[in-house]
Every structure is written in structure tokens, then in C-alpha cells.
Amino acid sequence: MLSFFRKNSFFNSLLLLVYAIILQIIPAFMNPPAPDGGTTMWSRILGHIGLIILLFVQAIFLNRLVIENRLHRDIMLFPGVFFILYASALPDFWHYNHIHIANLMVIWSIYELFQIYKTTNPAANIFNAALLISIASIFCPPMIWYLLMLFVGVSNLKKMEVVHPIQILIGAATPWFLWITYSYWQGQEQHLWPDFKEHIGLNVLQILSDRKDIWTYAGFILLVVMQFLLYNEFRKKKHIQAQKKIDILYVGLLFTILVMIFHIPATTEILLIAAPMLGIFIGLFFSHFKNHSIPEMIHFILFIGVLVTQIFLYFNFN
């Protein structure tokens, strides 16, 4: 199955949509209502249609990010594949929620950030990158931490000038200014701070006390550690531009963990925040195998494992 995604063509990219449909079709018919308040079967199905399209768009965007910035010597679609697979792995991921929207903004922001390399006038790209992170923080407040990633990214890709932090701050302030203005216009300004404070706060103790999902968190930590152990492998035989951008993705992965520990409520849903970064790194890892049968077998086991879990939970819920 993985061999279908070793080439970049319209047909192969379209298969990502089929891939997302297969991994989301069973959760769409599960009976328990989604946490966002959906109660009817049709509302859940429509939500899953939106989720499938959103996952597909993000997967395409991730593949474009990797291909255009030459983060791997081969042109392949593995980052998008493993992004969809990761984003379908846990029951808390199986509904349309605010993190999916915020992740799209983060992916787009990183794409804009990467455009400033060797650009004589990067003002528009820096502004856009900060603007998109700020929009993401409206949907998911802890993602405001990603603004620090932009400071690191700009200083890594270009010589930091006095004007660059100003551009970041103006880009970050614009969506919040418009959102606050709209809230005042609608007479809902009293809800702004309580809503923001309700979704951001240090949740480490809550995560550590969650014995039910402790193995899930342990597996995530192991997955992240593995990516850092592969740091030199991902940078090896890459030109300086790709190395700098891979470094930024690693910084982004670190800030992803920071975002997660400040997200409230602290359920396994927060692990979805890491989907874009891990999708890229896992995709790069699977593309490094010289023997194609090994990644094919591992991917097939993971893919079937997710489907079996969904089938088991489906009959359990119904």
C-alpha cells in the first residue's frame, strides 16, 4: 500500500483522500456523541466529512512543504500518509475539533516561514506566518507559544534585524485585534478573557495523574525521543537550506510539547497537536529504508492496527 505514495502525481495525491476516508469511515458511524456537542448521526457524519477534507488538505500541504523545501532527496508523499494515520490513531482524534483547524494554520505558517530563505524582502512572509499562528491561537489559545518558534526560525533562516520582531508582533496582534473588535461589536467582550483562560494553563499534574492513558502518553514520548535520535540521519547529505529548515521543524516539535502541556483540558486529544511535525518526521524516517518491504510491512501493521481498534470500539459502543 505504501508504494502508491512513493511518487508525486495528481492520482497519487488523490489517493490520500481515499486513505483518509478509509480511516474515518468507521468512527463516523459510532454512536457516542462527539465532545463538541453533536448528537445526531447525520451531524456526526457531516462533521466527519469536514474532518476528512481537512485531513486531506493538511496532508497535501505537508507534502508540498517537504517537496518544495527539498527536505528529502526523493519526491514522495509519506509525510501526508503518516500525518493522516497518526491523526486517526486514537479515539479522541475521531471527531472534528478546534485542534484540526489550528494545525492547518500552523502548517501554513511554517510554509510561509520557509519562504523567507534567501528572500530580499521577507516582510510579507514574516507577517503572514505570525498572522496564521495568531489565528491558530484563537482556535487553540496555547498555540500562541508558536510565536517564539517564529523568532527562532527567522533568526535561523536570515540575519535577525530590528524590523523582523516588529513584523512578527504586528502580524500576531492583527487577528486578536479584529477578534476583540468583533466581540465588542457583538456585545460579547465579557466572555473573551474567561474563554481564553478556560483553555490555557499548566496541566502537567493532570497528565501525570491520568493513569488510564499513561501508556498512551508513554508511547508518544517514545515516538518523540526516537525523532530526536534520528536528527543526524535527517540532516545527513542535505544542503544547508534543508538542514536549517529541519532544525526549525525540531524547534517546532519542542514547542509542540510546550503547547500540549498548557492545553486545557488535558486529555489524549492534546497529542493531536503534534500530528503535523510527527507526520513529517515519521514520513522522512520511512523513506530512508533501502529495503522497501520493511516500511511496507510496518505501515501495513500500523494501518490494520488502527482499523482493528476502530472495529473493536465500534461494536463496543453499539
In short:
The protein is mainly alpha-helical and 318 residues long. Helix content is 68%, strand content 0%. It is globular.
Characterization of this structure:
By secondary structure, this protein is mostly helical. 68% of the residues lie in helices and 0% in strands. The protein is built from 14 helices and no strands. The chain has helices at 10-28, 41-68, 78-86, 98-114, 123-139, 146-157, 163-185, 192-198, 204-208, 214-229, 231-235, 240-261, 275-286, 293-317. The longest helix has 28 residues, at 41-68. The chain is globular and about 50 Å long. The relative contact order is 0.15. The model is unreliable at 33-38 (pLDDT under 50).
Write the layout of secondary structure elements.
Blueprint: H1 10-28, H2 41-68, H3 78-86, H4 98-114, H5 123-139, H6 146-157, H7 163-185, H8 192-198, H9 204-208, H10 214-229, H11 231-235, H12 240-261, H13 275-286, H14 293-317
Helix pairs in contact: 1-2, 1-3, 2-3, 2-4, 3-13, 4-5, 4-6, 5-6, 5-7, 6-7, 6-12
